[in-house]
Amino acid sequence: MIRFLIKGILRDRSRSLLPAIVVALGVFLTVFMSGFFKGVMTDIIDMNARFSSGHVKVVTRAYAENADQAPIDLAILGVSELKKQLQSAYPDMEWVERIRTGGVLDVPDENGETRGQGPAVGTAIDLLSPESGEVKRMGIQNSIVKGKLPEKPGEALISDDFAEKFSVAVGDEVTLFGSTMNGSMMFYTFVVSGTLRFGNSLIDRGAIFMDLQDAQMALDMEDAASEILGYYKHHPYDDIAAQLLTESFNARYSVESDEFSPLMTRLAEDAGMADYLAIAENMVGLMIFIFVIAMSIVLWNTGLLGALRRYSEFGVRLALGEEKKHIYRTTIYEAILIGIIGSFVGTLLGVALSYRLQTHGWDFSELTGNIGMMMPSVFRAQVTPSMFFIGFIPGVIATVLGNALAGFAIYKRKTARLFHELEV
Amino acid sequence: MKRMKKIFITALMTTAMVGLAAQDADQILETVDKNMSSTNRIFESDMVIHGRRNSRTITSVSYSVGDKQSFTEYLSPAREQGTKMLKLEDKLWIYSPSTDRIIQISGHMLRQSVMGSDLSYEDMMDDRKMTEVYSATVAGHEEIDGRDTYVLDLAAKVDDVAYYSQKIWVDTERYVPLRQEMFAKSGQLLKRTTLSDVQKIQGRWFPMNMVYKDMLKDGKGTEFRVNSAKFDQDIPDYIFTKAALKQ
């Protein structure tokens, strides 16, 4: 019987083509959108983890309360000892110190007086140690527009936009002016080794990337750092594992009455990140929900149109003595076959386009350049195992559901009126 | 008719009293200016800044002429020694001996804290007489530390002012402010200054101890102790040049 139905579907394309196209299109959109959003959300989370929050972050309790002001006076002291303890207690994570500071980046003229200046956002990372993974983690090498990475103390990378605005060339000197950890005035002159652009205004605006030891010297932060970030060495962010980790660390090291005791927070606790994580986690369910609802309505209508078009056929079959139940059953079998064909084609196309976007990306830098949130400039989809069923199963179900609803019309036909209706 | 006459006289008296009160307030403010402002002055002072972790004392000497020129040199601690600040008109430069750079402070930086204190660069720059910037009204009398004070409400009469309004408590005998509260246009209290240890120096009353408190920050505030105040001195002109910063 299945062979008979397949023959019918293939031979009478006007019966199957439209529903198959609709299913394929719906499945394609579902698969692609799920891959695209999953990719973008994962990239946003990943970017925030790499640049700002880590998978987990250790700061002082006082710093955590005012984290948006990057208050270096509330930084962690004795950071090397704490880092050693973290490395020993949690060896499956990589621990890195960072310093964030604000101030003014001042460009001198030939007399050493101000030629131009602008607000600066300083980030100090381990730029010079060969074993440091920070340059790779932050994608600094790929973001360099001119010049090269700092190779010795006293060199820094500055925002390409800033360099353009104030005509700063590679090899020129710039002075970072701000406050030290103790509140003293801080003046530190760097040689510009290169300029960089990440394509995101939040990171690019007045950015200066310097080596951690330079920053510690400039800011009177000997053996101190704003924060220690932790990254899982062998797998991506895992919220449940991170929660267990933070609970274990805070129970051991954090004292509520001591505002300078360390406090560990996880990525999901960073501003807005919990929402992104929830969206990324629930993307599959969200897509299936939207698909089944929307596609069932569309396919119901397609089924209704089909049933209308096949009104005479069903009438003749009823007149020839075929049972209503049998006609309804064959309609459902047809729907299953059309659903499988459409879903297969849709899944194939959706996965193929997602894979293409995963490898090549889609450059949105012109649109995202001025967005005040940390998000990548190149959007990439992500091919996941769930894509192979996220559209396929709902595609078949929706086709069957649509045809099942439309097929009720078969039962409403009155055999007594058939000949009149068929104008026999 | 009799009733109309009564209303007219009452209105006339009220207007006259309000006028007199305003005149009194302006006169009080003028007398305060005579004590607090001078043609020129030299201060040696200690600034005690209380941080969340520790406190620091910064010693400096400053030279001022009117409200347009001032020069400050930081003497200690070692981290600040040799740092100099020059104000000419509405421009401010800082010299850093460690980098041998002269950096101009402008824009939003003027609102930043000076050395982690409760004072901003803008606070340090604004030396204008109060009568030039604010119009005053007497709001009442209060006692502060056993001394009777006029409470004056000040409203800005110029645009380029750091604080839209102020409330000051002026010693009724010595005409020196004992407390100042500075407000934003929204009415939010931004800073509070408490002044004490009023001494007579060269015929004028002057508070030698001031505690500045940025009300938007946690902490104990910044103490400013004047160790020596000299008024109407001969200050050489070259001090108020950028060349003096590097000397």
What does this structure look like?
The complex is a heterodimer of chains A (about 425) and B (about 250). With about 425 residues, chain A is an alpha+beta fold. Chain A folds into two domains: about 1-45 and about 280-420, no CATH class; about 55-235, no CATH class. Helix content of chain A is about 50%, strand content about 20%. Chain A has 19 helices and 14 strands. Chain A has helices at about 1-10, 15-55, 60-65, 80-90, 135, 140-145, 160-165, 200-205, 210-220, 240-255, 275-280, 285-310, 310-320, 325-360, 365-370, 385-390, 390-405, 410, 420, and strands spanning about 55-60, 75, 95-110, 115-125, 145, 155-160, 175-180, 185-195, 205-210, 225, 225-230, 260-265, 360-365, 380. A six-stranded mixed β-barrel of chain A has the order 3-4-9-6-8-7. Chain A has a two-stranded antiparallel ribbon with strand order 2-10. Chain A has a two-stranded antiparallel ribbon with strand order 13-14. In chain A, a hairpin with a 5-residue loop joins strand 3 and strand 4. In chain A, helix 2 (about 15-55) runs antiparallel to helix 11 (about 275-280) and helix 2 (about 15-55) runs parallel beside helix 14 (about 325-360). Chain A is elongated. Chain B has about 250 residues and is α+β, with helices and mostly antiparallel strands. Chain B has two domains: about 1-35 and about 130-230, Lipoprotein localisation LolA/LolB/LppX (outer membrane lipoprotein receptor (LolB), chain A); about 60-125 and about 235-245. Chain B contains four helices and 13 strands. Chain B has a 13-stranded antiparallel sheet with strand order 6-5-4-3-2-1-13-12-11-10-9-8-7. Chain B is globular and about 50 Å long. The interface of A and B includes residues 175, 180, 220 and 260 of A.
